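Sample entry (107 residues):
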Amino acid sequence: MADSSRVERRLGDIADKFLFENGRVRIREMKPTSGDPGSARRHQLDHILIRISGDRIAVLPEADTPECLQQPIFFPGISSFLEKGGIESARNVGKQNFHEILFELRD
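Predicted structure, serialized as tokens:
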């Protein structure tokens, strides 16, 4: 009999598009449109997020992610450093399309 309490979690891509990658850094771009629900993703590397545009995004941590960046209002130019390990989804709850660049640090 299968254990129904264990549901396999499907994780999505960290970002929409690869921009650059080498042995030290991976740079990706995210552009969720207004109302985009996003998918759960796991951050396997420490990373820096730089917001380019957009007004509001909701960060929804998974139950097994104890802490998550909670900044519901963003403005262009704001940046954040986050440690690896978090699993969350990001939903664009704003009226504007959102644009963010993600720098994953390999060392």
